[in-house]
Write the structure tokens for this entry.
Amino acid sequence: MTDRPVLSASRITHIYPTPRGEIQALREVSLTLRRGEFVCLVGPSGCGKTTLLRILSGLLPPTRGEIWLGDQPLRGPDQRIGIVFQKDSLLPWRTAIENVRLPLELGGWPGPEATQRAQALLEQVGLQGFEHAYPRELSGGMQQRVALARALAADPEILLLDEPFATLDAITRERLNEVLVELWERQRKTVLMVTHDVHEAAWLADRVLVMSPRPGTIVAEIQIPFPRPRGADRWSHPAFLQTVWAIRQALGNGGG
Amino acid sequence: MIGKVTGWRIRVRSAVWLPRAGAALLFVLIWSLVVRLGDYPPFILPGPERVAARLWTLAVEGALWRHWWATAIEVGLGLSLGVTVGLILAYPLAHWRLFERMVAPYLVASQAVPIVAVAPLLIIWFGPGLLARALVSALIAFFPVLIAAIAGFRQVPPEWRELFRSLRATRWQTFWKLEWPAALPVIFGGLKIGATLSVIGAFVGELISADRGIGFLIKQGQGLYDTSLVFGGILLLASQALLLYGGISALERRWVRL
């Protein structure tokens, strides 16, 4: 792992104008993602996690602050960044494979190659046999697998995930987290995942960033030293539980 | 295997058509019952058999098809024109508030004035031909398509727009791969209303000026107190609306995957 930052944000402040005055969502947030890292961002709800993710993905220009993608400033959405949205982001008139193909179609890929790549990605997320199913025919977990495959379609360097499995039940969520880790270990993308689940963060990440309530800012950075693969036996390690506790406390210190 | 599938198809078809045929039969039965029980003279309310006979003589003369076809062409032209204009106007109206503020009052006004009042004007301007009648039909058909398409384009969920933005889709890609398919179910709703209205529009045009068409037939029937002909004309009009509606529903089943 090199220490060269792939994505860095410096002193991001964001203010929303509303009819009843301005709301400061983010205050002076700085962070750095190094190549191949898996970072989780945790924080209480309403702390601006999603806003921060939208800013990092180039969808939302921040009120103040700068974002650098490699050695260039980020000016808008970039194909080096893939996004997995919270839910319901699949297009209902497209089958699973057609949804995964979408970024490639928009990027002007030739049809057969796009289909081939989409097919391979669906297999990687464990959906072979469901290529031609429509989203409504798939369970919530399967839909998010499709969303994950779609985010990877254009082969981005960075994957941003906004509470991707938050609406799923605990067992499906755990299974999908495993799928995500397997993909990450195989493809070595740089991953930033927003979650409000402390256990999830401790299990998945190399590093956990903890945000304070609004106006959100990063109040703690916690390294997760455990070797991989991290199996289900993590629950029996006191050190793991201590880490979870440390994150929990950092959340509490933010005033949440 | 093939036989099985075909058998299933036939069963589905008959499940669709049997109730329809039954309802049609019931309609005819009640109609003839009303005529018989009320003992109405044929020039007030002819029975179904009289209307059928009148249509039959018309068909034998060769006039039925000619009139039906004349109206069908007007409806076809009118609806196509109305849908095209409706869809083309809908996109900028849905996206640019300024354009909407400027244009919307005129569109609403064009619909507030009864079509019967506008039709003579169109005939003065464009002559008593096919064009004027198709325009009357288009003028009434375009509005529901327009309103539906505006609603459809506007209600594209912001999450999907964000997705397309994150994928750096061009305006054209966003239209063709997002807005159009997302709006299609709503557009079809407007199209169904527009289709039935386009038949009314063509008919109104024919009432005012025509030497052929179903409107012409009905006017003739009225003048001659040939009530069976009037009824026959009404049935012919209904047949066109039903055909159009059925055709559009078939397209909808094929194109809309929701």
